[in-house]
């Protein structure tokens, strides 16, 4: 038996105390920071990624199994956060307007270099999406912005199954309405 500041840890139990978890977590900081730097290639982004990883690990402490490799568990969390952030940023393609009001604009590079057929197809797709029922459209837009089903469900206060079915329904409806543009 080990004693930590008023808490008892039985090595035979499969539950890790908060103190032991935090100690192990902080002991891996150098490894995690190095991995974050490898992923981001930027000191500030690496620090943000490291902090996000700590928050996620601390909030999901109960999901960590005592007899598994904590370093691998944390690397997986960090890698998943990095991938999710990358996808979200890639889909947004946001740049800053240089006007006095400093509006954020969403203009994709593809639209500027597209041929007339592609521009027409994009306009019709946007029109079809605007014509969708608001409840369905919001879930679809969030999905296309890079949000995960769980995040959409939490934001819209729906079950994950409802979110998945709405997105599936919208994809099917758009596919039927835009058959002229499908690639066979």
How would you explain this protein's 3D organization?
The chain has 184 residues and is mainly α. It folds into 2 domains: 2-92, Rna Polymerase Sigma Factor, Chain: A (Orthogonal Bundle), CATH 1.10.1740.10; 104-181, Arc Repressor Mutant, subunit A. Helix content is 64%, strand content 7%. The protein is built from 9 helices and 4 strands; from the N terminus they run ββααααββααααα. The chain has helices spanning 18-27, 29-40, 43-59, 70-92, 109-112, 116-130, 134-144, 149-156, 160-177, and strands at residues 2-4, 7-9, 94-96, 104-106. The protein has a two-stranded antiparallel sheet with strand order 1-2. Strands 3-4 form a two-stranded antiparallel sheet. Helix 7 (134-144) packs antiparallel against helix 8. The model is unreliable at 1-12 and 102-111 (pLDDT under 50).
Mean pLDDT: 77
CATH architecture of the largest domain: Orthogonal Bundle
Low-confidence stretches: 1-12, 102-111
Distance between the ends = 67 Å
Q: Helical region count? A: 9
Strand content: 5-15%
What's the count of strands?
4
What name goes with the CATH superfamily of the largest domain?
RNA polymerase sigma factor, region 2, helix turn helix motif
Give the helices and strands as they follow along the chain: EEHHHHEEHHHHH
Short description:
The protein is mainly α.
Please describe the structure with a list of short key phrases separated by commas or semicolons.
Arc Repressor Mutant, subunit A, 7% strand, two-stranded antiparallel sheet, mainly alpha, 184 residues, single chain, 9 helices
